[in-house]
Amino acid sequence: MKRRLSKKELALLKAAEGCCRVSYTETSRKLGVSHTAVRKAIDKLASKGLLEVAPLLNVENLDVVLALLFLEVPSDREVNKILERFRECPRIISMFKTLGEYNVVALIYAEDQSVLDSILGSCILRVAEGIRKSEVILVSSVLLGGTLHLKVSVSRRSVAPCGVDCYACDRFRSGKCVACPAVWCYTGWFSLRPNNASQLR
Q1: How far apart are CA 167 and CA 171, in angstroms?
Q2: Backbone angles phi and psi of 148, in degrees to 5
Q3: Hey, which of 25-34, 45-54, 105-114 has the most confident mean pLDDT?
Q4: Sign of CA dihedral 23, 26, 30, 34
Q5: First to last CA, the chain
Q6: In this structure, what DSSP letter does residue 45 have?
Q7: Nearest CA to 106 among 118, 120, 26?
Q8: Are residues 73 and 126 in the same domain?
């Protein structure tokens, strides 16, 4: 049965962002080296940008909707502009450059179908400047690799990271969208208010 994360669980995930650690002692025992050697090797991989330590969530058990967004973008320059605008978007789980008719693919999430309709039609990649055409495919179930890095936001911005003013949006005002998880007016469950972000009790 799918569920939502509690405020305590969201706060824990936010606190763990960037500081999850493997067991150096257990890894050193398996490899037959010192735990100091393991720690240095992992730190070296991280410093080279080859390893990122982050909490992963099993989206198969979470109350979220996943979709693949296929985009035809005319040039690398436009791709870079899109990447810069949406780099901090909390709804984009991953983005890839691909070969073929659609040269950019993004995996995104929403709280429900109504929110997905809103973000696809109003504020996310699909309607960005420079997009020639797009196609959306809804994910019906995850078969492999269901643990993904969904960013937990602390709601404090007045506008979304992409520059959209959610509060002024008609769909938000009519209750058809919960807004971006990164803004103060967000009404969905997948975010923390600043004053609750460090409370684990």
Answers
A1: 9
A2: -130, 160
A3: 105-114
A4: positive
A5: 25
A6: H
A7: 120
A8: yes
The radius of gyration computed from the CA coordinates of the chain, to the nearest angstrom, equals: 19
Please count the structural domains in the chain. Answer: 2
CA-based nearest residue to 87, from 125, 138, 48, 50: 125
Q: Is 85 helix (H, G, I), strand (E, B) or coil?
A: helix
Cα separation of 129 and 77, whole Å?
12
**Cross-strand pairs, 175:** none
Q: 109: closest CA among 43, 63, 71, 74?
A: 63
Residue 71 maps to which CATH number? Answer: 3.30.70.920
Quote the distance between the C-alpha of residue 141 and its chain's center: 18
pLDDT tens digits, one per residue of 163-190: 999 999 999 999 999 999 999 999 999 9
Q: pTM for the full model? A: 0.85
Asked if residue 95 belongs to a domain, the reply is yes
| Containing structural domain, residue 128 | 58-148
